[in-house]
Design goal:
The chain has helices spanning 11-25, 43-53, 146-150, 152-155; strands at 2-8, 31-36, 68-73, 76-82, 105-110, 124-131, 134-141. It has 160 residues and is of the alpha/beta class. It starts with a strand and ends in a 5-residue tail after the last helix.
């Protein structure tokens, strides 16, 4: 595993990080990105930058009430999930996730801790926290993604 902590000055920097992560990750057919942090930490802002960079237009909000918002981008599927409202992780069983295997679909998962035991492991974990007027983003890759960690300086050069 490899970690990197980045200082993000504002929402624009958070969206820019999301866009850079999209450019880096979506060259693969699928994977899982956990977005962790307290309420208001910037999880949806990062997801918005990720999705906008892939061409999603219109309003992009956290799917707090629907739990899952599917997107079709070109020939690739992407799910944006917000699991905050789950009372128990087994509630994920009835959401049709089997139709979106992470081997061929991207999952952006807000509040992944609410799905513990039912979610696949993350390829990338992004932990967001408040830091003065801005925020900190801690990025952690898994063993299956050693190349992305080696390229951190290229991926996020101006966001520190």
């Amino acid at each position: 595993m490899s970690c990197l902590t980045i200082k993000l000055a504002d929402d624009a920097a958070t969206e820019a990080l999301g866009a850079r992560l999209a450019a880096e990750t979506t060259s693969r057919p699928g994977g899982v990105i956990y977005l962790q942090g307290t309420l208001g930490a910037g999880k949806t802002t990062l997801a918005r930058g990720f999705l906008r960079s892939l061409g999603v237009s219109g309003s992009i909000r956290s799917p707090t009430y629907t739990l899952i918002e599917p997107y079709r981008i070109g020939d690739q599927d992407l799910l944006h999930m917000d699991l905050y409202r789950l009372k128990h992780p087994d509630e994920l069983e009835g959401l049709g996730l089997d139709d979106y295997a992470p081997s061929r679909c991207w999952w952006l998962v807000e509040w992944p801790e609410c799905g513990t035991g039912f979610l696949p492991p993350a390829s990338l974990v992004v932990r967001l926290s408040a830091d003065g007027e801005g925020r900190l983003a801690e990025l952690e890759t898994t063993a299956e993604w050693p190349l992305i960690a080696a390229r951190w300086p290229e991926i996020v050069p101006n966001l520190r």
